[in-house]
Amino acid sequence: MKRIWAAVAYLATGLLTAIASWLALGVLLLSVVILPLLPITAPVIRRIVDVDRQRLARYAGVEVPSPPPLDGPWLHRAQRVLADPASRREGLWLVTHALFGTLFGAIAIGVPGSLVQQPFASLIWWAVPGGVENSFGVHVDSWAKALLSVPASAVLALILTQLPRLADLDARWARALLAPPRASLEKRLAEVVATRAAALQAHGAELRRIERNLHDGTQNKLVGVVMMLGIAERTLQQNPDGALQALRRAQDAAGEALEELRNVVRSIHPPVLEDLGLDGAIQALAARCPVPCVLQAEHLGRLPAAVEAAAYFAVAEALTNVARHSGAEHAWVSLGIDGSQLTVLVHDDGKGGADEKRGTGLEGIRGRVEALDGSASVSSPEGGPTVLTVVLPIGK
Predict the structure, then answer these.
(1) What pLDDT does 120 receive?
(2) What is the rounded radius of gyration, in angstroms, for the C-alpha atoms of the chain?
(3) What is the SS3 string spanning 288-328?
(4) Degrees to nearest 5, angle at CA 358 with 336 and 368
(5) Are 312 and 349 in contact (CB under 8 A)?
(6) What's the pTM?
(7) 102 vs 21: CA distance, rounded Å
(8) Whole-angstrom Cα distance, residue 214 to residue 329?
(9) Among candidates 36, 40, 43, 37, which has minimal Cα distance to 69?
(10) How is residue 130 annotated by DSSP?
(11) Residue 74: per-residue pLDDT
(12) What average pLDDT does range 121-136 have in this prediction?
């Protein structure tokens, strides 16, 4: 009995999403005619479909993940929606669910209601002047007609026991339409494996860089400080007047070692991110850039530390490339949040021709970003301009 009522609840809530699907279909048809509306309506339609994904997970225990949001410029995003296989599957789901979800939901609500109303009408007809009408539209005004509720109720009870099969059919249908094909899952798994390997490789390279900086830089300077202090100690015993100069050299070397250590710490997670947030830290980078740089950023608020660090280092590396290699006269940095992702654009008016295989740091940016399941792309034709686009999920 519990399974029957679970099926009734699943199909009845499906009626609500089916009604929403009819409305969404009308909006979708309008958006196909007026293409610039598509980037607005596509996320709304996806939210409706996500409700059915949650409904499917609760009833059948099957998780069908929602596809990632589409990014990019406005009209380009509209074209991507039309070309996106997941969006096409969701459009097909809208049509089928609007039709069959309405039918199945009406059955799930109508059968239990009729099963209650049939015997009730047969029992009270005599107390109502002129009789009553049952759920099948039969006017019950005699005991002969009242007895017809017995086989009718038996049929309704039989249909009620079959509702779990109807719900299972609807669930299989939804899973077949909304789940990505096996090839897509395998491709995504391969991407995750490659990203994880790249993240581990980047992590190992970062540890080696920190170790090298500490060993070759800070450690050597600290050893020099110890030696200078030893010299100052011996000089103090033999020539107290000359010890002051040795102590000053040791103090200068200690200051250099401290600055070296600070630089290593900043390369791990810049303190400016903690103090000013991502938008403030990028503003500081733009102000220090030798090429005049304009920052366009809304108030981002606090984001996950790993996301802030990846975005900060991407902009820092990009602006370094602008200053060293681009020959640009101006640069622009844009930061914005669209739904659940952060988009970073670094644009310059230089000579172009940037190639991540030539040691410009672009490969490092890509590795750091893809380790967070983000994406990084560079457009840099000969003659310019160069545009770096970084998209990072922020988990909202």
Answers:
(1) 61
(2) 34
(3) HCCCCEEEEECCCCCCCHHHHHHHHHHHHHHHHHHHHHHCC
(4) 40
(5) no
(6) 0.45
(7) 10
(8) 36
(9) 43
(10) T
(11) 47
(12) 60
Of 70, 50, 54, 51, nearest in space to 62 by CA: 54
The burial of 374, by beta-carbon neighbours within 10 Å (0-12 exposed, 13-18 middle, 19 or more buried), is given as buried
Residue with tokens 């099963």: 115
Please answer whether residues 184 and 88 qualify as being in contact, where contact means their C-beta atoms are separated by less than 8 angstroms. no
Residues β-bridged to residue 346? 333, 388
Distance of CA 338 to the CA centre of its chain: 10
Tokens found for residue 150:
């017995």
Separation of first and last alpha carbons in the chain: 39
More confident residue, 342 or 149: 342
* 194 contacts: CB under 8 Å, gap ≥ 6: none
Q: Could you give the CA distance from residue 374 to residue 389 in angstroms, rounded to a whole number?
A: 11
Average pLDDT score over residue span 339-346: 84
Burial tier of 254 (Cβ tally within 10 Å: 0-12, 13-18, 19+): middle
d(CA 176, CA 182): 11
Across residues 240-266, what is the average pLDDT?
73
Q: How far out from the chain centre does Cα 139 lie?
A: 58
Unique residue bearing structure tokens 């190639």: 355
169 Cβ contact partners less than 8 Å away, ≥ 6 residues apart? none
Let me know the angle formed at the C-alpha of 317 by 314 and 323, rounded to the nearest 5 degrees.
Answer: 140
List the structure tokens of 376: 């990084």
Please name the residue ranges forming H helices in 34-162.
38-60, 74-83, 85-96, 102-124, 143-147, 149-161
Place of tokens 């949001």: 69
Inter-residue contact 132 to 94 (CB < 8 Å): no
Find where tokens 């640009």 sit: 328
* Amino acid in position 222: L
